[in-house]
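Hello forum,

I keep getting stuck at the same step: I have a sequence, I want structure tokens, and every attempt I make locally crashes halfway through. Rather than fight my setup again tonight, could one of you with a working pipeline run this one for me? It's a single chain of 135 residues.
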Amino acid sequence: MTYSDVEGGYEGQGNIELDPRFVEPDSGDLHLQPDSPCIDVGDNDALDLPDYDFEGDLRILDGDGDGWAVVDMGTDEFSIPTIPVEVDVTPYIPNNVIRVRPWVLVKVAILTTEEFDAADVAPDTVVFAGAPANT
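Reply #2:
Ran it on my machine without issues. Output:
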């Protein structure tokens, strides 16, 4: 056995002995929390690795947001939650604030009556208050 989180420990490549940080294990919710040590630490080359997890979600995702898609330990693949958000940028609205947890990916739609080509917007010119560019 390799790349597993085993209570009491178990010798093998990639094995760990840590709290997996399940959402609600006492209630049977064994989904991983965003700070789980089991996220993105499995083996993408494991034999018989299915394309989808037990819920039908894509199996190999970048669950920790570091730019590398690595399979998670366990049967459920963690994915960063997304929240669709529409922000009207014309006219400017002061104090138009969206607060989310650091592990949430926010998709933003730009609503405007002005004509522009989104392909002409340089990604490094888009900045959200309180966050570095391109985050």
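The mean pLDDT is 79. If your local run keeps crashing, start a new thread with the error log.
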